[in-house]
Design brief:
Layout lengths: L4 H7 L4 H8 L2 H9 L6 E5 L2 E4 L4 E4 L2 H4 L8 H12 L12 H13 L5 E7 L2 H16 L3 E5 L8 H4 L5 H4 L9 E4 L4 H9 L3 E6 L15 H12 L2 E5 L23 E4 L11 E6 H7 L17 H16 L2 H22 L3 E7 L2 E6 L8 H10 L3 H14 L1 E2 L1 E2 L6 E4 L7 H18 L5 H15 L2 H6 L3
Parallel strand pairs: 3-13, 5-6, 5-7, 7-8, 8-9
Antiparallel strand pairs: 1-2, 2-3, 4-10, 9-10, 11-12, 12-15, 14-15
Helix pairs in contact: 2-3, 5-13, 6-13, 7-12, 10-11, 14-17, 16-17, 16-18
Bound molecules: pyridoxal-5'-phosphate.
Pyridoxal-5'-phosphate binds next to helix 7.
Length: about 475
């Protein structure tokens, strides 16, 4: 008996859409069709994807941030093959796994600040967030968690309780009590809440995925951390998206010299090939969660220390270090950001370019010129976010550049390109934005007619914003 993957793929070529229509999420497939993202992908390597009809697409999203080192990195692939070839004694369960110990050690050596000493492995980002909620409650004996408006920490019910966007929560009933939205810029309100000494943790994404936001004032995060320390509240950094080099430092926390009590990582940790996640946490929290012999598995997961994932994790850290990808993310990110800021001088629709490293958001707003204002207003009135969706579609259709709208009802186009991005590819992205934004000056023109088409569909259902805003 053998399993022939190549034959399976070639026997079913062109059938992805119909399979999803029948057995998967057909609504998602429908939305993809509306925005023209109907391609079936056949190959992924480095910074590129290939479609069935032979297009070579630059991957400006890295699978929502998992492929920081590029798709199917040869070193990680080889490490996984080695893991399979030596028949590792995976998931014995009644043992201490050497490889998870080694990966934990490496993560702690790289961790920001001086508090993180223990690691708990998970299978995804949302599971890491779930664990952090439990650990924070167990360690403090307090019920409440503060999270940011606009936050995204995953979509299982605990992490969903920390979601700053109502539309993700809608229809799922009452979520975990005690989870409350906060505005990081309103330090007085945060101080008031923390002084009540009822808050277990402040959970924040140092660079927020939805919209690519961080406080304009660099003093905000250190002050929140200080308030946490003063009130016995845990400071939790969700670096699932912004960690491991994405922002040009190992950790986004490093931009503000933060020393969290708990740090969450996932996405890029296995080079994107195998699901993985990890909670890095302090000795103090560890002792309070796993406090007695009969609580030794009080939090655990069957696949958590899956050795294939651990091998991929160790290989990924090696690649990030040896290929100097953190430095590269910083340098290439700076070039892309400054190129986009130059475009801002020429294109009045760009209101702000923000980001750190290769986590970048381009925010659009109403133009100054009287001829274009009404067109913008029309699209905007139909649904906030449609203009940026039209930009994303044109970048893809005409320039083979994959990007996304950064969140529900946001006029922000977001990019998370792989750290291996070259100077030529940066130039290609800048030229693509330049051309698409140049097109916007033509009214009526293709971008606006497409926008109108989207507006028509959006009037029926608010579909685009929902799909677009996933990461
Ligand atoms: C900051 C952040 N936290 C948590 C998650 C959830 O991770 P996962 O999709 O692996 O559950 C994400 C996913 O996009 C994220 O960006």
């Amino acid at each position: 008996m053998s399993f022939d993957l190549r034959a399976l793929l070639s026997d079913h070529i062109g059938q992805a859409r119909s399979l999803h229509d029948q057995y998967g999420n057909a609504v998602f497939a429908q939305v993809l069709e509306l925005i023209g993202f109907t391609h079936e992908y056949t190959h992924g390597e480095g910074a590129y994807l290939t479609t069935l009809d032979g297009r070579r697409v630059f991957d400006g999203l890295s699978g929502y941030g998992v492929f920081g080192m590029g798709r199917n990195h040869p070193v990680i692939k080889d490490a996984i093959r080695q893991a399979l070839d030596v028949n590792l004694p995976n998931l014995v369960q009644m043992d201490c796994v050497m490889l998870s110990g080694l990966l934990a050690k490496e993560l702690i050596e790289l961790a920001p600040g001086d508090r993180l000493q223990r690691v708990f492995f998970t299978n995804s980002g949302t599971e890491a967030a779930e664990g952090a909620i439990k650990f924070a409650r167990a360690a403090t004996g307090r019920p409440r968690i503060l999270f940011s408006k606009g936050a995204f920490h995953g979509l299982s019910t605990g992490s969903l309780a920390l979601n700053g966007d109502e539309s993700f929560r809608e229809g799922f009933g009452d979520l975990l009590p005690g989870c409350e939205r906060a505005d990081w810029n309103d330090l007085e309100a945060i101080e008031r809440e923390l002084k009540s000494e009822t808050v277990a943790a402040v959970v924040l994404e140092p660079v927020r995925g939805k919209g690519v936001f961080y406080p304009k004032d660099d003093a905000v995060y250190p002050e929140i951390q200080r308030l946490c320390r003063a009130t016995g509240t845990l400071f939790v950094a969700d670096e699932i998206q912004c960690g491991l080099g994405r922002t040009g430092e190992w950790w986004a926390c490093d931009h503000w010299n933060l020393a969290p009590d708990i740090l969450l990582t996932a996405k890029a940790l296995s080079g994107g090939i195998i699901p993985i996640g990890a909670i890095l946490y302090s000795e103090d929290v560890y002792r309070k969660v796993f406090s007695r012999l009969d609580r030794c598995v009080v939090h655990s997961s069957t696949f958590g220390q899956n050795t294939t994932a651990m091998v991929a994790g160790l290989a990924s850290l090696r690649v990030l270090k040896e290929e100097n990808l953190i430095e590269r993310s910083a340098a290439q990110g700076e070039k892309l950001l400054s190129g986009l800021r130059e475009l801002q001088n020429r294109h009045e629709f760009i209101h702000e370019v923000r980001g750190k490293g290769l986590m970048i958001g381009v925010e659009f707003g109403s133009p100054r010129s009287l001829t274009l204002k009404p067109a913008w207003a029309l699209l905007h009135a139909a649904e906030n976010g449609l203009f940026s969706q039209a930009i994303v579609v044109q970048l893809f259709k005409n320039h083979n550049l994959l990007t996304q709208v950064a969140g529900h009802h946001q006029e922000v186009v977001k990019m998370l390109p792989p750290f291996i991005i070259s100077d030529d590819e940066i130039t290609m992205i800048l030229n693509a934005f330049d051309a698409v934004l140049g097109e916007c000056r033509r009214f009526p023109g293709p971008l606006w007619s497409f926008g109108k088409q989207l507006a028509g569909a959006a009037a029926k259902q608010h579909l685009f914003a929902r799909t677009a805003g996933r990461s």
